[in-house]
């Protein structure tokens, strides 16, 4: 486990040493983002200063057993930390992202009334049968009312709590990679969550909604770092100081070499964290200025909380670096 403070400015993360008073203030009002190491999937829990929590995705693999385990463990984690689940943000309807949500809800975690679910509107969310239909049935039978908010070619700004707002936006189409995007703002801090998407979709969103919705201290790298996502033009607009990716070593969940290079281009001094190396990635911020930047704390926990139960692993950096690949033919990712 390692913990350190960082001062984040555009495209740059630097070690920071806040004094005792600031550390106390920081501990008392913080937003926390916890990307769990779930292996071949993604699950990110956001805890707000008011003890409410949002879950961005929640899935591990394409089978049922791991997703069932993850859902139960997420519910236990919420209870243990005295967090109340206020919103679900399933980025796109793939099992490795949303497969654990039904078992999470079935385990009866503390929920706000209503529970809100934000999602993109496309046909892949409306199959006549199968696990997505079953998830919707679980939601429909909850004792708590649920408010579905669906977006298509639209942007919605939500006030979350004191100092926190959320900007949701989505494009259109029937492609499962038309993920809903979320930019969170907490005082001066901004974080961008991108689901799984391809460079063309990211660029369309950037053109439609503009740089103000993309700029962020922290970029959740799209599609686990696949070559087909994380357009250079988007990286150049986001200017993140920290990039985080939910990764494993299999095809489709790997932070590929060219994606990593796009994150490192143009003299950026950003930190890149990925779950297959770092375990659970925990970021905290009070959203306030610190020496010309914004103060964050990074805590890396390996092995991560759910790793053993999910059969996920962390590996030495050299092993992961040696296994990096590049998938060819994504000119729309390279062009600026
Ligand atoms: Zn995925």
Give an account of the 3D structure:
By secondary structure, this protein is an alpha/beta fold. It has one domain: Metallo-beta-lactamase, Chain A (4-Layer Sandwich), CATH 3.60.15. Helix content is 26%, strand content 34%. The chain is built from twelve helices and 17 strands. The strands form two sheets. Strands 2-1-17-16-3-4-5-6-7-8 form a ten-stranded mixed β-sheet. Strands 9-10-11-12-13-14-15 form a seven-stranded mixed β-sheet. The longest helix has 16 residues. The radius of gyration is 18 Å and the shape is globular. 52% of the residues are buried.
Which helices and strands occur, and which strands form pairs?
Elements: E1 2-9, E2 12-16, H1 20-28, E3 31-35, E4 41-47, E5 52-60, H2 65-80, E6 84-89, H3 95-98, H4 101-106, E7 111-120, H5 131-140, E8 146-151, E9 154-161, E10 164-170, E11 181-186, E12 189-193, H6 199-209, E13 218-220, H7 232-238, E14 242-245, H8 257-264, E15 271-274, H9 275-278, E16 280-290, E17 293-301, H10 307-310, H11 317-322, H12 331-334
Parallel strand pairs: 5-6, 6-7, 7-8, 12-13, 13-14, 14-15
Antiparallel strand pairs: 1-2, 1-17, 3-4, 3-16, 4-5, 9-10, 10-11, 11-12, 16-17
Bound molecules: zinc ion.
